[in-house]
Write a structure and sequence with these properties.
Low-confidence stretches of chain A: none
Number of helices of chain A: 17
Shape of chain A: globular
Mean pLDDT of chain A: 95
Number of strands of chain A: 15
CATH class of one domain in chain A: Alpha Beta
CATH architecture of one domain in chain A: 3-Layer(aba) Sandwich
Largest interface: A-B, 41 and 41 residues
Oligomer: homodimer
Chain lengths: ~450, ~450
C-alpha cells in the first residue's frame, strides 16, 4: 500500500470546476438593494476576472500560462495518514491533500497565480492587496514575481511587527509590504489622525488596498478568498484529490477542511458537492474556530464583505461586517463572513459546519506532528481536530470510513503560536450570545436572502 | 516536457550506496597515532552503527522500518529548473533534487531517521546531540518522535536566542532543547565559570552532548554529518536522482552541492562518483563559503573533528580543530573540517571544490526565488551561485550541458538572514592568509595522511 499517491503532470486537471453551474444562488446586490452589474466592479478587478466571477459555465479551461506555473508545485501529493490511523487505532482510512508544498506553503497560490495571470493579460501592471497573518500577501507576492507584476501589500500593523518573516518572504519575491494604517492613503491617514498608535485591522488594510487600486488605470485589487472566482481556482485541489483517490479505488465518506473565507474548504469539497447534488452521500464538514463562529452561530443574511462597506451586499453567514474577532492564532479564520456558495450549501444542509477551540486544535496539531511528521498551520489544525474526532467515532462504531482532509498549509512561519501553546500561554475564547446579537445589529435593515434549494 | 519527475514509492532505492567499497582511504587513528578500533567508539555510538561506519560493503540494505518512515517525504521530486534556464537564456538543462520537502525542511532526516532506528534496535532510549543553526537538531527531534525515543539537543546559546523557531520545532516533536553552555554538564559549567555570558560554540555544544551521552547505558550520541554512515544514509538522494534522470533519458555533465561537513553533497554526488571511478566523465563541484574555505584553501591532514579532541584523528581537509569561522549566515557550512571521503576524492582530483561569497550566494537565492519560486536555505544558495555560473558558462560556450544540483533545504526558518540581506546589513568575509596559517598550527605535529589513488 502506497503512503503517497502522486499524479503525473499530464494527469493534472486542465479545467476548473464552477459550482455556480450546479447550485441556486441569491444574487449580489448594490447597497441600495438593486442587482449588482458586472460593470460596477470594473474599477476594482480586471474585466476578465469579473466575467469569470459571474460565469455559470460548469467547466472553465485553465490557461496554459497558469498550468506552467502550477507545475512548480502541482500536482500536490495525496497522502495516507497511516501513522495517525495507527496511533488512534481507528479502522478509518485517512487521506490528506498536502497543499503545504507550494513555495509560500499553503493553498493560496492556486488562486494567486491565475489572478496575476488574468491581470497581466488585461494589461494591468500592479496589484494591490491586504494581508492579515500574511499567507495571502506572500502568495500574491510569489505569483506577481512569476509574471513580472508589481505587488503592493498592506499588512495589518500588528502582524507586520509580530511576523517579520512574512514581510521578508514578500520582499524576497520582490513585493512591497507596508504596515497598515499607512500615511499613503486617505483611509490610512484618517485612522492615524485619530489614533497614531493604531495596531491596524483587516478592515483598514482592505480600505487602503482598494483605495490604491481604484485610482490608476494600470492597477487593480486582488482578494484571496470569499469570491467565486477564488473558489473556482481552488477547485484544482478537489479535482486532483478525486483522481488520486480513484487511482487507489477509494471514494470519501467524509470530507473536512477549515474555513475562514471558505476558499481552501471549497477547493477540496466542491468537486465532490457536484456528486452530492447528483445523489451521492458524503458528510462534508467545514470547520471554524469557536472564537469566530460564522457558520455555526451566525445567521444567513445579506451583508457587506468589509467593514468600510466598499463591497456589494452578498448573501452569506455573517457575524456582521463590524465584528472584530478575538486574537486567536488561526489568523486566516478570523473573517466575519463566509463565501456565499459555502453559505448557500450550509443553508441547504449539504454542508454541516463544525467548530473547535484553539487549544484542542493545537493538541490535534501536536499529535499530527508527532505521527505524520509535518507541522501544520494553526488554521489547518482546526480541520485536524475534526479529523481526529471522526476517526475516533469510526473506531467506536467499528466502521471503515474513508476520510479526506485538506492539509491547507504548513506552520513553519507560525511557530510563534506553537511556542505560545507549548509554554501554556494560549487560551480559548467562546463568544457570549449577547455579543453575537450585538454584532448582528449592522445588517438588520438589509434585504433578506431567499431560501433556495439546489437539489 | 515534465517540470517534475516523480518516482513511485515502489521505485525507491532499497539499498544505500557505500563509497568505501570503491575508494582507498587513510584509516582513522587514535590520538597517539595507533589505528582506531571499532570498540573505541562503543561508549559514544551503538555497535550496529559503528559496524556500519566500518563497513566496506558496496550496497547496504535499508531496513523496512526506515523505508516506512522515508515514505513520509521520499521519494523527493527531481525538478527541471526551466524558469531559471529561461531567465539566464542558457542552453544548459538544470535539474534540482528537492530535499526541502521533508518535515524539518532539509536532507538531514535521511540520516536522522536511520540513526534513530539503529539506536532503538540496539536498545537505546535516549539520544543526545548538538546543533548550531538548528537544522540537525530539528531533524533528529523529528526522527526520535517517529520511533518514540527521547531526544536532547544542546543548541549553541547565541542561536538558541536568535532562532527561537528552531527550538520550538524541536519541542513540537517532543525533544528537549537547552542552550549551551548549560549548567547540566561539567563541560558547560567549566565554560560558564570562566564566562557566565558565553554565547556558546559548536565545539562546546559537542562536548556537552558527548558528555551526557557516554554516561548512562541507555543513552548514545548522534552526529549529523562528516561520518561515513551519515554519507551512506544520504546516498538515497543521488540514487533516486539517478533513476529519475534515467526516466527522462538524461545523465549529468555537472553535479553541484554545498558542503559543510559534506553529507548532502556526498548524498547527491557519491552514487555518480561510483561511475566516475569506473570511467565516466563528470565535473563534480562541492561548494563552500569563502569565509570558511576548508576544501579550497586548507591542507589535507590528520586532525580532530572537534575542538575538545574527543574524536579520533581523521584524514581530511581541515582549517584546524580550533578554527572559529566568521559569523556568516550559512551556519551549516561553518565547520572547520570536511568528511574524510570527500577530502580523499578532492586530493585525487575527482572532486573540484569551489567557493563563493555570502553576498553572491544570496543574489543567487533571490534569482532562484523569483524564477523557480522556492526560498532556499542560505547553505543551498552557495550551490545555486555555482549553478548559475555553470549555466552562464554553458551559454558562453554554446554547450547543452546537463547540470544536477542538490537543493538541500528551504530557507523558511532562515528568513532573518534574507531580511539582513535585503536591508543591506550582510557583508562578505575573506580570511587573510596569515589567519589560515595560524589556524593550521594545531595539527602540525599530527601524522600525515598518505596520498592514495582510487582509480
Amino acid at each position: 500500500m502506497a503512503k503517497k499517491i502522486f499524479l503525473d503532470e499530464q494527469e493534472m486537471p486542465t479545467q476548473w470546476y464552477n459550482i455556480m453551474a450546479d447550485i441556486k444562488m441569491n444574487p449580489p446586490l448594490r447597497a441600495d438593494g438593486t442587482p449588482l452589474e458586472p460593470g460596477d466592479l470594473a474599477p476594482v478587478f480586471p474585466m476578465n476576472l469579473i466575467e469569470q466571477e459571474a460565469s455559470t459555465e460548469r467547466w472553465i479551461d485553465i490557461p496554459e500560462e497558469v498550468m506552467e506555473k502550477y507545475r512548480i508545485w502541482r500536482p500536490t501529493p495525496l497522502v495516507r495518514a497511516t501513522a495517525l490511523e495507527k496511533a488512534l487505532g481507528t479502522p478509518a482510512r485517512i487521506y490528506y491533500k498536502n497543499e503545504g508544498v507550494s513555495p509560500p506553503g499553503s493553498h493560496k497560490p492556486n488562486t494567486a497565480v491565475p489572478q496575476a495571470y488574468y491581470n497581466k493579460a488585461f494589461g494591468i501592471k500592479r496589484i494591490c492587496t491586504e494581508t492579515g497573518a500574511g499567507q495571502w500577501g506572500s502568495a500574491l507576492a510569489f505569483a506577481c514575481s512569476l509574471f513580472g507584476l508589481e505587488c503592493k501589500v498592506y499588512m495589518v500593523k500588528i502582524s507586520f511587527q509580530q511576523k517579520p518573516y512574512r514581510r521578508t518572504m514578500m520582499e524576497t519575491w520582490g513585493a512591497t509590504c507596508v504596515a497598515s494604517p499607512s500615511e499613503e492613503t486617505q483611509s490610512g491617514r484618517a485612522v492615524l489622525e485619530k489614533d497614531p498608535d493604531s495596531p491596524g485591522s483587516l478592515g483598514i488594510a482592505i480600505s487602503e488596498a482598494i483605495e490604491m487600486a481604484v485610482g490608476p488605470e494600470d492597477t487593480r485589487y486582488s482578494l484571496g478568498s470569499v469570491l467565486n472566482h477564488v473558489l473556482l481556482h481552488q477547485s484544482v485541489i478537489g479535482l486532483e484529490a478525486k483522481k488520486q483517490m480513484e487511482k487507489v479505488g477509494e471514494y470519501p465518506d467524509v470530507i473536512i477542511g477549515c474555513a475562514g473565507g471558505g476558499s481552501n474548504f471549497a477547493g477540496i469539497a466542491f468537486p465532490f458537492v457536484h456528486d452530492v447534488i447528483n445523489g451521492k452521500e458524503i458528510k462534508i464538514y467545514p470547520v471554524e474556530p469557536k472564537a469566530c463562529p460564522t457558520m455555526t452561530k451566525a445567521p444567513f443574511v445579506y451583508d457587506h464583505g468589509d467593514i468600510a462597506k466598499f463591497t456589494p451586499l452578498i448573501a452569506m453567514h455573517s457575524l456582521g461586517h463590524a465584528f472584530v474577532p478575538p486574537p486567536i492564532h488561526a489568523g486566516g479564520l478570523r473573517y466575519h463572513g463566509m463565501a456565499p456558495q459555502v453559505s448557500q450549501l450550509i443553508s441547504e444542509g449539504i454542508l454541516e459546519p463544525r467548530s473547535y477551540h484553539q487549544l484542542e486544535s493545537f493538541e490535534a496539531g501536536m499529535m499530527w506532528a508527532q505521527t505524520e511528521g509535518y507541522i501544520s498551520a494553526p488554521e489547518t489544525n482546526q480541520a485536524l481536530a475534526c479529523v481526529i474526532d471522526e476517526a475516533k467515532k469510526a473506531k467506536e462504531e467499528g466502521k471503515e470510513k474513508v476520510i479526506l482532509v485538506n492539509w491547507s498549509g504548513h506552520g513553519l512561519i507560525d511557530l510563534g503560536s506553537y511556542e505560545r501553546y507549548l509554554s501554556k500561554q494560549l487560551t480559548d475564547y467562546e463568544l457570549p450570545d449577547e455579543m453575537l446579537e450585538k454584532a448582528e445589529e449592522v445588517f438588520k435593515d438589509f434585504p433578506k436572502p431567499a431560501l433556495l434549494k439546489s437539489r
